[in-house]
Amino acid sequence: MHPRPDERHIRRSDVTLIAELMRADRPAKEFNIEGYPEERLMAILRDVRPEQCTLVPDAPDAFTSEEGWHLDNAQANLAHPAIAAIKALGARVILFIDPDRTVVPRVRRSGATGWKSTLALTPPRFVMAPMPRYCARSARRRRRPPTRVWW
Q1: Can you spell out the DSSP letters for 80-147?
Q2: Which residues span the domain enclosing 81?
Q3: pTM of the predicted model as reported, rounded to 2 decimal places
Q4: How far is CA 1 from CA 18, 29, 77, in A?
Q5: Domain assignment present for 133
Q6: Is residue 33 part of a domain?
Q7: Is residue 139 part of a domain?
Q8: Does residue 109 register a pLDDT over 60?
Q9: For the chain, how many structural domains are there in total?
Q10: CATH of the domain at 54
Q11: Residues 36-84: pLDDT tens digits?
């Protein structure tokens, strides 16, 4: 779920309620919260302690996600502290990235657990390819099949 600041999709109170409803089934059924790394999101994460957090680079006032992380210096300075704080809560951190091979090594250096591509924005010329070996090893440790990614 993506609790946006304007609450047009889901309200803050809904997040808490859903976390409570899922309590008996977690961690077998994982709770994922998506959002921009700012204090409002961090407060939600501290409150409900999801199994996974997917970080998106869209500013809180953005209408929708239009691109993924590039992890240039400015974005890395924003993402790195948030990634460390989220991982300290015990959650995996996934970064929403564009289908750009040059970004993948930056994701690994960021400390994020993994990444997913902006599939809806992927041009048709891109094809499905397996995740890099370091992501596949991580997936095996979690006893899950490796995720696939679009290039």
Answers
A1: HHHHHHHHHTT-EEEEEE-S-TTTHHHHHHHT-SEEEE-GGG--TT--EEEPPHHHHHHHHHTTSPPP
A2: 12-125
A3: 0.76
A4: 10, 14, 25
A5: no
A6: yes
A7: no
A8: yes
A9: 1
A10: 3.20.20.70
A11: 999 999 999 999 999 999 999 987 777 777 789 999 999 999 999 999 9
